[in-house]
Each structure stands twice: as structure tokens, then as C-alpha cells.
Predict the structure.
Amino acid sequence: MRKLLLLILGLNLISNIAGAQQFADLSQPVPFDTTIRKGVLPNGLTYYLKRNINPKGLASFYIYQNVGASLETEQQDGLAHFLEHMAFNGTNTFPGKAMLNMLEHNGVKFGKDINAYTTKNETVYNLSRVPTKDSGLVDSCLLILRDWCDELSLDEEEIDAERGVISEEWRTRHTPGFRLQGKIAPTIYNGSIYAYRDVIGELNVIQNFDPEELRKFYHEWYRTDLQAVAIVGDIDVDAMEQRVIELFSAIPAIENPKERKAVIILDNQEPMYVQVKDKEYKNVNINLKIRHKKSTDNTMQSLRDSYVNSFFNALMKGRYKELVLRGKVPFLSASAGYGPLERDYSTFDVYAVANIGKESEAFEAAYTELQRVIQHGFTNEELERLKVNTLVAVENNYKKRNSISSDGYCKAIKRVYLEGQAVSDAKFKYLFAKEIIPGITVEEVSAVASKYLSDINRAYVVTGPDNGADSLPTQEEIEAIIAMVEQSTIEPYVDNTPVDAPLMSTTPIPGKVVSEKTIDGFKAQEWTLSNGAKVVFKQVNNKTNKVILKAVSKGGKSLYDVKDIPSFRAASAFVSGFGIGAHDPIQFKKITAGKTPSCGFKFGEYEESVSASTMVKDLETMLQLVYMRFEEPRFDRNAYDQLMERNYYNINNKVETAKDLMRDTLTILSNNGDPRLLAFDKDYLEQMDFERMKEIYFERLSNAADFTFFIIGDVDAETLKPLVEEYIGAINSTGEVEEWVDNGDYFPKGKHEHRIYLPMTEPKATVDLKMRADADYSRETIIYHNILGSVLNLRYTENIREKEGGTYGVNVRPTGSRIPEMKLGLEIRFDCDPAKADHLKELVYKELKQVQKSVLQSDLDKVVLNMKKNNRKALMNNNYWLSVLTKFYETGENRMLPEYFDDVINNVTTKEIAKAAKKFLKKADVLDIMFLPKAK
């Protein structure tokens, strides 16, 4: 406890900001970020502007519409979302697809940089990462925002074309989870309009509404008093403000506008109950939901309350996690906490995911843990650890205040305009948290449950698989459990963790740097240690105070026989959950309170790796954890047995959805009899062995000489080198160096077509084309293949989504791998109406034939511009340099040289892409798979 208090006192003294600020009067409003310029035009439209150079040379343009599905009539169900789609299908300034063509010709990609979404209460559009060097492009983006306000074309032909696209989106969205929400919504929202507006709407309305109904919704609700624009990025704020005022002031205000009412959810004095079963649900969920009206007064007191609530949620999460890790519990997971529901409303939830047959016991255990807090509260030690961690996070966020992206600011501004939240500057957040957090008491955090555990506005939501059993608890049974637990005397929580326990149980024997060299072209150094390990270090002075590490070795799963694969995967999946050294995960979290390092490992197909990161102040702790990952892993037999019990439970109670069957079938067909592909079943589990898992772990992580350690960050060599010698130099070594093994390629040769019929709740066809071909490596080969994928994406969007209205989207994924041998891949996948599947697949093949003959220059220009923008070397952060250096050591290629990318992309032609397409498609092996609904 004393250690925690000293940490908090130390953090309170850390500040480079002159002066002090007191927050004695918490009734004062949270101050608005003065670096954001706000204005309101005479017509009611609000604007927000901010200069931000992350990323440099780019800006983001947003428009927020205080309009959503909750404003629809029965005849308009789904039209708020439909209208969002229509904003990209023609405006007065940009008819048809002119807007998208113009933006993509300037490297702004639809779906990635150009997007929108609709909810029950809002519709938000964005044009992100727009180059600002071209003033004409910036002005065009302002015109687009202006047109979205008041000048959508809503052409009848375009409306009819979009009906098919949204019908297919409706089909794609109708998952088991979506169906669940539709069935429980009337209970959660007590019969309000929220219960009957799921945003996507009714299929009958989508396919048959009168276009005048859409125009009516547009003209009633898309209006200046319900709109705001935000422009954040590398801009001149004064000049931008003048242009915004000039352009948007010309939009007339609506006379006698229809009132934009807030949705009221009526109180329910008596609890409500809903039970939903579905053949595709996998687990039983029992949820007590208590609805509350949310405060939106934006005072400092409300901000302080948000910290108290978040502390309660985090501490409850920790309690439940500890229960799962400490021993057998009747739930798979549980939670209790306070969070958002819809605008102006929040809920307090107690939630349990139960083992089948243990439903009542699961909810009882979850509710008992909540009552333990109500009766005894949290401990001071729990809260103080959390406060220390929060203050460290606050400190780190303040140091990174200059790295917030323009889109990050725009999303925060959205909450200001649409939800009435406050957005303060980084200095206020930092000072407020430093002063307020230490004064939050364990009594007030513990009281959160009693505050929100009210008798009114309760709902019990129970969901589970439709497996013929009738074991789901009724309302009466849940209420009986609650009454019984509340009347019980519950033992207090006991925290037995010695917080001053040492992290490491052994003292390493340091090694030495025996040779050094400079890596030309990277301003990096390579140190060879006495144990054979190589350390590649680059100092990056980016003022983030952060360091990252990655250690890589060849080998991975490829070195193991089939009989060892289950134990190999157990080592990969289980060991990180056992903790590290002498500490289980709970103990580890407690003794490292206030520290920033993280360290994990990964066992892959052809390599193993250890990754870590930290703030500079905890650099030694990070390197200690790296040493421990090699030398002091933790193997917990009890935890292993619990995991195995859960795996057996999942297999015995497996529910196979259509999605699961598709995934498994694709895996089986793609691997075509590969003996190393093992089904995850009872036989698989019985091949797992605890002792063999331990052996495999040490085989992969016990030889420092087989690893190259890359360390990148805001630290100098003089500080780092002694720590590297002490910890990385102390890792044991055999001196051997391994290589991965090629176990063969089982992808089927030639072309194979499959039509597979599956039971489905909602009929849908899924078409999946997988192609694979050998290739000779060159930078041109890789880049041309990626360009091909992007060109096909453009073609399919135009011809299959837009012209045909046949699918919500065609996913095109090009791949290239050099291990174990050079291969190119291409996957084309889409969902559609089963009746259209064959026709749309023909169009896919037609486009594949066409792209081998010719590629449109306009398509190539769009793709190249976007690739150039995404390859910006200005973003030279730690992760960028890590990828550059690991690629150099893996392949010998220097990504910094122009021949790696720039020379290729600047000189590519349409003929070269068509030639590359022909070369790949002519040689490619093809899996052509179509999943269709089985007749009932």
C-alpha cells in the first residue's frame, strides 16, 4: 500500500507545465478546447475548424446530421439509411458518380477515405485524408459538404438502382446477433420508437417505397439547424472560415421546421422479461438491464463522476476475471457495470454467459460478486492500483497530445455537436485528472452499484440455443435468485497479493556486446552479444518517450510432426494466460501497477517472435519481461486443466451456424487433404499434452543465438546498451540456428467448382473464388498484383454493386507470399440473392477476362494515387522503422530506396497491369465455391 501511495505522490509531482490549477468549484462547465474554432451561421448551421498536421498535408471533412432512423414514419422505415447511400449517387454540383470519380482521381478512396454511417439518432459523412496542397480539391470537398446539406439530386433512376444494393446489405446484416436485437428491442426500449427502427429497415419498404417519401424525409430533416460541418487538418483556419461562411450561409433556413423531438422511453414500474431462442445461438446469456436517464450537463462534476463510474466498471471486471482464473465458476464470463444505451439513456447491467445446464448458478454467481461489493465495498488496494494505472495513462496521453489524428478530432467534435459532450484541450484533461483522481475514495466507487441498482426500469433478457431443452430461467426464477443473494451474508473479498514481491525470481548473469556495426542507410546499429543474439537498434527522436521491441526467429510450426501440432498450438494459445515467472496473471497485474511495459509472444507457421513495448521510464522492466519470456515462463497445470475442460465443453455443446460451416468447408477444400490440417474435435484435444506443450515452448524460446532483437524508440544507445547486455545478453543459448521447413502445398491444382447447400435461417448465396499461382519474385510482381486487386475492386463496385445492384460489395483480396516459396493469390468473395448468384459470378469472370486485355487509365490513376498517399514516408514512427528493419533483415530489401516502391509506381502502365493479370490468371489454380441455402 505504501508503495502505491508513493507512486501516486510521485505522479502528482510530474509536470512540465508552469503554474497550478485548482478545480474547487466542480459546478463549472468543462472548458471547450480553444484550439477548435466554433461558429454558428444565421441559418443555424454550426461549423468547427482546427489546424492539425497529423498527418501533414492532409485534412478531413465531416458533416454531422442530427438525423437518424428514430425520425422515420412507418412508410419511411429504413429511409434515413437509404438517404445516406443516395448522398454518393448524385448532387446538383456532382451528378451521378462524378463526386466519387473526382475524389478517387485525387487519391481519396471510396470505402476507406470516403464513407458514412447512420444510427437511430445521427447520420455522419466523412471525406478523410484529403490532400490539401491542391486548393481546388479542398474547395471541391467544401462543395460536397454543401451539397450534402441541401442539394442531393435524389434521381429516381439512381434510387431504383440503389434498392438492390441496400436489399443485399439487409441480407448481409441479418445475422443471428441482428435477429436477436430485433426480438429483445421492445423490452429494452419499453416499446418506444427505438424498438422498431433497426436502421436498415424493412425489406418491403426498401424495395417498394415511393421516391417522394425519400424526398419528403430529406427536405424535412436535412436542414441547417440540424447540421454541423467540421474541417480538421493541415489548413489555414482563417481562410477556411471565410470560405465556410461564404458557402454555407447561402443555404436558406427552413421556415416553420418540424420539431426534432428527443425520443422518450417511458418508465416501467414493473420489470419486463424477454426470452429468445435460436438454433444458431451458441451460449446462454442472462442479463439484468436497468435503464437510467443520462446526465448531459457537461460540468466538471459530471466529468469526475465519469471517472468514478469507469473505476467501478474496471474493478468489477477485475473481480470477475479473477474468479475465472482462480478456479471453477459456472459462467464462461460475467460483467457488471454502467454504460451507454442510446442518446440520453444509459443502463446498469449484470450479465452472465452460462454453461448449458448451469444457467441459474451462473447468474447467481455473477450477482453474488456484485452483492459482495455492495456489502463490503472494494478494497483500498484495488482502487489505489487502478488510480496509479490511470494516472500513468493520463501522463502518457498528455505526452502524445501532438499525435492525435485529424479524424480523431472530428470524432470528438461529433460528440460535442450531437451528444452535447464537452471536448477540452489536452492540458485541461491532464491537470484535471492529476488533481481529481487521487481524491476519489473507495467508498464512492463502491457505492456506484447501489446508486444504479434501482427497482424501476428493469428488464430481464435471456437468450440461448434452440436445442429442445427448456432450461432457460424464467423471470420468477431470476427474481428469486436476486432476492436470495441480497438476503445472504457474503464473505468479503480478500486480496492476498504481496504487492512488493519482486518481479524476477532469479538474477540474470549478464552478457556483453562483442561486436558492433552500423547499418548503412538506416542510421541504425547492430550489436552482437556474447550469447550469439543480434540486437538491431535505431533511435527515433519523435518525442513519444516510447520504445518497442520485436525478437524474431525462423522455425515455427513447420518444424513439428503432425502428432505434435495440438501441443504446439496449446503452447501458442495457453501459455500467455498462465502469467509469467512466479506470478499468475492477477498477481502480475497487481505488482506491476503504475508500469507501462507489455510483453507477449507468437508462434507462427514459419517463425516465432517476442514483442514488447514500454514508455522509456520503464525500459528496464520491459527488458526484464523479455528475459522472463525466455527464461522464466509460467506453466500452471490447474489453469491448463480449466482451459481443457472449457474446450471439451465447447466441443460437446457445439452449435454449427451456416457461417461456421462455410468457414470449415473453405478450409478443408483449400487444404485438399493436407495431413497437417487437423479438425478441432475430441480426438484433437486428446492429443494435447501438458508436458509436451512445455517442451515445445522451450524449444521455440530457449536459444538467444537464433533470434534477432529489433529495438526502436526514443532512447539513446548509452542508456540502452547496458540493459541489453544485462537482460538479452543473459538469455541462454545453444548457438544453433534453425530454418523453417517446407511441408508442401496442398492447394488443389487446376480448376474445381463446388456448389454446396447449407441450412440457413436467412437465405443467402455466398460466392468465393480462390486463386493461387507460382511466381518469380520482383518488386514489380508484388506491386502490379496489388494494383490488379484494386482495379478489380473498382470494376466490381461499378458493374456489380452499382449497375446491377446485385451485392452490398465484392471483396477482392490480393496476396503475395515468399515463404515457403513465391506465390500470388487472389480471393473474390460476395454475398447475394441466391437467384442472382450464377449471373453475378458470370460478371466476375467476364471482368477477369477483360482485365487481361486492357485496363482503364482512369482506374490505374485512381489506384496509383491512393497507393502513393498510403505510402507516405512522413509517418516515420517506431512501427514504421520496425517494419523497415525487419524487412531488410528478412529479405535484404531496403524499403527506403526508390526502387522498392517509388520507381515502380511512378512508371507503371495499363499494359503492364493487363500483362500481369494475364500472366497470373493464365497459370492460376482456381477454387470456385458457391454456398446456397438448402431447401427446407
